Amino acid sequence: MWLLWTAVSTGTAAVELWVSPGGNDADSGSREHPFATLHRVQAAVRAHPARGREPITVQITGGVYRFDAPLVFTPEDSGSEAAPVVYRRHGETPVVLSGGFVFDALEWRPWRDGILRVEVPRSIDTDQLFVDGRPMPLARYPDFDPAAPVFNGTAADAISPERVGRWQDPAGGFLHALHRSRWGGLHFRILGNTQTGRCASKEAGRTTGPRSRTRSFVSWKTFWRSWTRPESGIWIAVTACFSSSRRRELIRRMPWSKASGSGISWKSGARRRRRCAG
Fold first, then answer.
1. Residue 240 to residue 199: CA distance in whole angstroms
2. Can you give the residue ranges of every domain in the chain?
3. Nearest to residue 206, comparing CAs of 197, 216, 196, 214?
């Protein structure tokens, strides 16, 4: 399969197709009239009569290219050894391939407890939010601390019975734990809780860290019985990746949170922004 990606444009090609974020997929794909998406230029390469007989170069103008579907390359995209297909950045501006989507002109409305909310389509499902190009931390306990070396903030009472017992509908959040030797951590998806203040999780916690070159797991039972003892010296943080509007214990501590796939909540102490990407 003769398909190449290179960083910088050099020389000329027998066949050139152009793509630019400011282009138009209805245009010809020439330098003066570039396509707008990599999916469109990919289709043009596949259909080009010179493919496999003459070199084809796709000149990618710098900028952000957003995808609503994966860009998949197969042998159908290749050329030949003598006439390869090359995808190449043109110029010095970085090329960014993003699966995110942009929210423009959002109408934030007061909700409760100093929280603003905005409705978004239910089909949108994301655990990342960028505002003016900066990533925003999810709802979490303790509050996000950029200076904290472990998980950007941990708390001894993060999963105390008193705190966990107050959670309402915590399923979908994550528990992050780092043991006292500090060479690896565990991450559990929270499935629920009990009125007596215990988290519920049937998943094994995945170990991460410099010594975890192979995947290793710790069962929830082993974690709860051994790691959560006071003498274990564990660091713990909790994030609500799919935060329900009822999970006020975490929501009131958030920069942002998602509510059941239909809305985004924002802490009112933050300056309102008009351009968000998820």
1. 13
2. 3-98, 102-277
3. 216
Q: Residue 3: beta bridge partners? A: 85
HEC string of the chain?
CCEEEECCCCCCCCEEEEECCCCCCCCCCCCCCCECCHHHHHHHHHHCCCECCECEEEEEEEEEEECCCCCCCCHHHCCCCCCCEEEEEEEEEEEEEECCCEEECCCCEECCCCEEEEECCCCCCCCCCEECCEECCECEECCCCCCCCCCCCCCCCCCCHHHHHHCCCCCCCEEEEECCCCCCEEEEECCEECCCCCEECCCCEEEECCCCCCCCEECHHHHHHHHCCHHHCCEEEEECCCCCCCCHHHHCCCCEEEECCCEEEEECCCCCCCEEEC
- Does 149 have pLDDT greater than 90? no
Taking the whole predicted model, whether its pTM rises above 0.85 is answered as no
User: Which residue matches tokens 């993003």?
Assistant: 98
Residue that wins the pLDDT comparison between 63 and 218: 63
How far is the CA of 162 from the CAs of 65, 169, 195, in angstroms? 47, 15, 9
User: Is 45:56 a contact under the CB 8 Å cutoff?
Assistant: yes
Closest of 3, 5, 31, 6 to residue 17, by C-alpha: 31
Task: Report the alpha-carbon distance of residue 39 to residue 99 in Å, rounded.
Answer: 13
Both tokens of 125, joined, read 């499902």
Report which of 116, 129, 103 is spatially closest to residue 272, judged by C-alpha positions.
116
- The pLDDT tens digits of the residues spanning 15-29 come to 999 999 999 999 999
Q: How far apart are CA 58 and CA 80, in angstroms?
A: 15
**Rounded CA separation 216/204 (Å):** 9
HSE (CB half, 13 Å, CA atoms) of 50? 14
